[in-house]
Amino acid sequence: MKNEKLDELIDQTDRFARNLGRFYKGNLLIDKDVNPKKTAKTEITKTRPGEEEVKKAILVAHKQTKDTGVVVEMDIFGNETMKREEWEFAESLDQLNSLIHDCRKCELWKTRTNFVFGVGNPNADIVVIGEAPGADEDAQGEPFVGRAGQLLNKILDATGFAREEVFICNILKSRPPGNRNPMPVEVEACRPYLEKQLKLVNPKLILLLGRVAAESLLKTKEPLAKLRGKIHNYKGWNVMVTFHPAALLRNPNWKRPTWEDMLQFKALYEEMTGKKVQSKGMQ
Questions:
Q1: Which regions in the chain score pLDDT beneath 50?
Q2: Quick one: pLDDT at residue 39?
C-alpha cells in the first residue's frame, strides 16, 4: 500500500541533500559512541568552513555528549574524513596519562612491566627527551631513574636546572626488549602522545639526549656530531641535542663536549626567557 506521507518525506530529504551544497559549505560533525554495548547517542554540530572552526566544533561536539569515544567528521553522505580519540581532548598531563597508560598500539605492551609516561613540572620551560625506558624505568614506571638518570640529574643540576623544574620523558613509553633501539613503527605509534605532551607543557626549549632520540624526533639521519651545537626546530619548538647520559657512562671522554653543549643550551635559555641561571660546573 502506498504511503503518501512517507513518499513526500523521502522526496523532501532527497531535495535537501541535493541542494545542501548550494547554501552550506561546512561539514556535519558527529560524535559517535563506538562501544556496541552502550546505547549510541549522537550529537550533530554544524561548522563554518575553515580548519580552526572544524577543530572547535569537534571539541564542542565531544563535550556535549556523555558517551566518549572516537569523534568522526563525516559529510552528508556518510563519508568519514577524520577520526579523533578521547585522549586527544586531554587538558592536563595527568588526564592524558590516565587515558593512554594501557596503550596497545604497538607490540611493546606485551613485554612491558610499566607504561613510562614522564615526570616533572607540567608547566616546565624545558622538556628533556630520551629514547626509551630501560630496565629500571620499566620496573618503576618513571624515566631516567637508573645510573643514566642519576647522571642526568647531576648534569641538569650543574647547569642550573633541578630535575623537578623540567619535564622528562622518552620517545617511547614502553621498554623495547633487551634495550634495543626503537623500531620506526614503535616511534610513529608513540609520536602523537609525545606531541600531545609537548602541547600541554608548551616548553621554551627541548633537549634531546642521544642520536636515537634526535633521529626519531627530528626525522633525520645526520650523525650526532652534526646535530650537536645547533638550534633545531620541531613544530615551532627550539631543540638542542647532546649525548645520552648512558653514553657518558661508557665513554667519560664525552663529558667535556656534553658540558659545552649544556652551556650553549643554558645561554639560549637565558636569551629566550630573560632569566639568569647559576651553573655549578660538572665534576
A1: 23-49, 54-55, 57-58, 60-69
A2: 37
Whole-structure pTM value: 0.73
Instruction: Work out the burial of residue 83: count CB atoms within 10 Å of its CB; fewer than 13 is exposed, 13-18 middle, 19 or more buried.
Output: middle
Position 11 scores a pLDDT of 75
Instruction: For the chain, list the domains and their CATH numbers.
Output: 20-84 (no CATH), 92-273 (3.40.470.10)
pLDDT for 10:
76
pLDDT of residue 245: 97
Q: Which three cell numbers stand for residue 153?
A: 640529574
